[in-house]
Amino acid sequence: MEEIGGRPPLKSQSEAQQSADRIRLLQQELATPELQRVLDLTPEQQQRFDDWAQAQIAELAQQFDVDTNISQKRASWGMRIASTLGGIAICAAVVLFFMRYWGNFGTFLQVAIVMMVPLIALGAAEFASTRERTLYFTGLLALVAFASFVMDLAVLGSIFNITSTERALLAWGAFALVVAYRYGLRILLAIGLLFLISYGAATVTAAFGYRWFDFGERPELVALVALLVFCVSTAIRHQRHTDFPPVYRLTGVIVFFLCVLSLADWGIPSYLPFRHEDVERLYELAGLLTSTGAIWLGIRRQWNGVVNVSAASFVIFLFTRLYHLLWDWMPKYLFFAVIGALGIALVLIFKRLRNQMAQRGVLA
Question: Could you tell me the pTM of the whole model?
Answer without folding.
Answer: 0.78
